[in-house]
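Consider the following input, taken from an annotated entry for PCI domain-containing protein (Grammatophora oceanica).
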Amino acid sequence: VEDIYNILQISQTRRKHNPNAPPPKAKLMAAYYEKLTTLFWVSENYLFHAFAWYKYYTLCKEYNRSMSDEMKQMQASAVLLATLCIPASNSQTSKVHNQHGITSTLDDDIVKEKMARMATLLGFHTRHPTREALLSEIRSKNIMADVPDYLCSLYKLLEENSDPLVMVETARPLLDKLANEVGATTGTDAEENNDDVSDATLGRYVQPLTSVLLLKLLINLSSAYHTVSLDNVKKLTEGLDLSFDQVEKSIVLFSQNKSLSVRIDHRAGCLRFGNPELESNAMRSQLTELAKRLEIVCHVINPPDMDGAIVNKTAVFEEIRATLAEEHAAVLERKDIIAKQKEEVERLAHEKTRAEAARKAEEAAARRVEEERRLEREKRVREKEKQRKIDRELEAIEKKKYLQAMGRNTDEMTEEDLSKVDTTALAREHQKKANKVKDEAERKTREIAKRLDYMVRAVRIEELPLIKNKYNDKIKADREQYEKEVVEKQKKAKEQWEADVKEKTLLDAHSVFGYLQEFEASVMVGRKIRYKDICKAEDERAELEAEKGKVTRARKRKKDEEKRIADEEAKRKAEEEEARLAEEKARREEERRKKREEEEKRRREEDARMQRERDRKAQESAPAPSGRGLPNSGGSRYVPPSARNRGGDGGGSSRGAWGDRDRGGGYGGGRYEGGGDRWGDRGGGGGGGGGWRNDRRDGGGGYGRRDDGGGGYGRRDDDRGRDGGRYGDRRDDRRDGGGGGGGNRRW
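Applying the prediction step yields:
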């Protein structure tokens, strides 16, 4: 039950987090409560049996729309009867006990907690399941409307009638009718328990209802009488089909369960009912009542001093106020101690229960193992003995068979005589005789076959002429018979033809075909008039149908035109919307492209500025190279500002190999002594490298910055003038500026 409850809680938690998660199937929950009804019925827990029946009936009525009225009536009856089977208690006794706290003991608290926990685990609508609560729920849900009338009468008898003298007499026919009730209370019980049909019908509630009726009878007797003779009790309980021993045992159980305060006085031959008020209220409070009345008498005889009483009362109140916190703490501490003692008692009880269960389980396991071993040994012994017996019987049967086959009488032979006989010798002797008989039978069969062959051959030779003569006679007789039948058939056909000719002649004299044309003309006149009327009506109907068809087609064409116009308008709007969206998208793309170009341009300018700054700092900090060994160098010639941006020739500049960062000039040094390095300075159009050969003069630096007009490799031939570098500025004209050093190769 706990496992199923935990599964349902997990499912409920998942549904809180995921509303789309499916709840447990109603059919599955109905089957669960149906099994619980059987479980609690077998364990005789009528309270939870009734609550399980109520849950099962509620689920079936709510979700099983195909449930028949008969099944609904049976289930509602089962709910009511299961509730009535819960033993009723004397309300007066219960109130007195609860008033004085007699039932608020540790055991009762444990029972209540267990009941509440079980009710929660089983998903009942209340944590304190009682008979009164379930009856109230039945009345509020109007389940009594689906119950047969005789069960309603039984309910009123048990719950409303208080006359003990006619109670049993009134209930007897109702219980008899209930015992004869046929029909399964559920859809599956009748199929699963065919061997015990009564357990699946309403008749099974007769016995517990009888016990409840007896308890109700005794409670009503106790409310009306102090003593009742046993003879009168026997007379009142005659209709319950219970012996007085069973009645007496039930009375003792009711008294033990505190359902009834009664004593059996066998000496006086009567039942003595106790008065709960007398046994509890009066006896417990008589000393207190005596003290209160004596105090009143003392006050009358000797009136107290009021001033002193006030002073004493004030002192008492002060003392109470001073010790109030301490008393409160003591009460709380006592409550904690009681709770701890209660927990300790429960823990010890649980440990004792677990230890006892473990011990019993171990003993049961040991007994089970030993029993299994003993049964296994006995089984092996029985099997061996059985096998030996079977072998002896088979051997005796085989011996008898051999002896009977040999012609001996085995009826008078005993088991000892059979045991002395050798089976192998009997088998050899029997086989020998069988072979001899077989050979004799084969010899006789061959002789008979030979004799039969001779006889059949002789018979066939003798009967051959006879068969031929008989065949010829049959052919001759068949031919004569055929010729006779042909002549007779021809004669009959001629006679029939002559008769038909005479009959035709007679009929021609009385022919009606001469009058047929006049009759046909008179009939056709009326038919033509009717035909014209019908044609006229049909033409009018056709014209109306054609007119209706025209109207219908015109309306259809109008609707189609309106639909076409609407579709075209919708399509036009959709196309306009698509065009607008495309234009908007193109505009956004154009804006993003322009923005990217501007950002790219700013980034390039910033990179160029930073690179020029770095080149400038590097050139300022680097020493000028020596001009020794450079035949084509022009020394430190002055270059005017107007010519600083032009590409220089082979002559050097004031900056030497590195040149000016704003001009592409450099000297045409050796192979490895050109301006800058082979690739030039990335910051600007650095000095060009020297020619690779002697005839490559005045060459500009290779791979200068393309944006700053860096030159490519210098002039290869002498007859080429001072042309500009190859990889100059792509956006500007390639001027005469000499090649600068190699720039950023990415651009």
